[in-house]
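Our preliminary data section would be incomplete without showing what the modeling component actually yields. Below, a chain of 162 amino acids is followed by its predicted structure, encoded as tokens that our downstream tools consume directly.
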Amino acid sequence: MIFTKNIGEPIYAALNGKVIAITDLDEPIFAGKVVGDGVAIIPTDGTAVSPVSGIVSFIAQQKHSYGITTFDGVEVLLHLGIGTVKLEGQGFTPLVRKGDQVKVGTALCRMDLDLLKQKGIDPTSPLIITSNSSDRIKKLTLITGQATAGSSICMRYVTQDK
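Predicted structure:
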């Protein structure tokens, strides 16, 4: 017997915390799936890890956003917090560089949750398959609930070529 929730390539939680649907965010760009489809994580701590194996293809100048391209060419974006771009890098310590090869669970960044709280910034972190890869995705399954970074699956995808 095949269970559909186990079909496809896994994307793991990038943070410890509660995984929610991206559409549940109170932020229209992410909730409207303008950047892509996926989930968001309400973190319980600030260590972000790679949700997939691949190459770090993007790190925002403000250190709050990380792109990883999987070995099958799917672009995954982790955006730490909502509205964190205005911190201009304050509160984020990158642990990788663009071009680094990572595996699931490789530490990407430390986020200072206390600083975000002091600044009144929502630490909820979108984890999405970017719109650049959306035409390659035949099926995307979202899995919500409590998650452990690097070990709990929060999404599965099937590409058109599989």
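The chain has two helices and 14 strands. The CA atoms of residues 13 and 149 lie 5 Å apart. Preliminary results of this kind motivate Aim 1 of the renewal.
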